Amino acid sequence: MQTIRLNSTGPDVELLQQLLCKWGYTVNGTGVFDAETDAAVRKFQRDGRLDADGIVGKRTWDLLQNEDARALSSYRINDADYERAAGLLGVEVAAVKAVLEVETGNKGGFLAPGHPTILFEGHIFWSQLKERGIDPEKYQKGNEDILYPKWDKSHYKGGMKEYDRLEKARAIHHEAADSSASWGLAQIMGFNYKACGCKNVSEFVNEMTENEGKQLDLFVRFLQGNKWDKYLRTLDWKEFARHYNGPSYAQNQYDTKLENAYKKYK
């Protein structure tokens, strides 16, 4: 579906109006995205815990058409959650939104109920096993897609298929596996559980699995624990990117993406 907003016209607007009526938001099926439709969209977005900006993009279309997306709506954060997090960090709401958008796009912190958005990193699993006195080479045969000494994005599967990789790793060592995935809205690596105020990685994963509000709390504690919130306060995107994304941040223009996302929300 196309992204549509106030003053858009055409068949996508007609479909939007039909779907809004289906979910009990009464609008006239004119095919014109008028003020009445805009108000209904914003109410639908608020009720679904999306940003109530009146712009019908991927997440709003998903929520309108997809039962799974509607089931996830109770997990989502809203504008009040962003404001609370920004207040705790002493930063602008736009800065918080920028980081989360760059980390997970508009997909959000959950793939399905009970399944936070994750990305499993096989090179981290390699090092996590070694930290526990386990020789990863003994387990590498048959596990080449989850266990390798250097970063290799070719093994990423994306979406729920990342859970196939995680479960395969958990069969080798559960704690090391959970420590080797990035989790939730802010894609925090599991081995950072202490910086997030958790006593172990199991507690970290349990909190990540509750809802996006918990994920946002972990993000706040993660920044505070590392004292990286100061870079968001001063909008120092390069230093924030260097610390949050690593020294190779410039290769994927992480700082530029953050700044552009901030400007959009600002």
Automatic annotation (TrEMBL):
Stretches assigned to the Peptidoglycan binding-like domain: 9-64
Entries under InterPro entries matching the protein: Muramidase, Peptidoglycan-bd-like, PGBD-like_sf, PGBDSf
Q: Which domain of life is it from?
A: Bacteria
Coiled-coil intervals, chain numbering: none
Per the database record, which ranges form the N-acetylmuramidase domain? 92-266
Q: What is this protein called?
A: N-acetylmuramidase family protein
Q: Where does this protein come from, organism-wise?
A: Bacteroides eggerthii
The taxonomic lineage of its organism, from the top, reads: Bacteria, Pseudomonadati, Bacteroidota, Bacteroidia, Bacteroidales
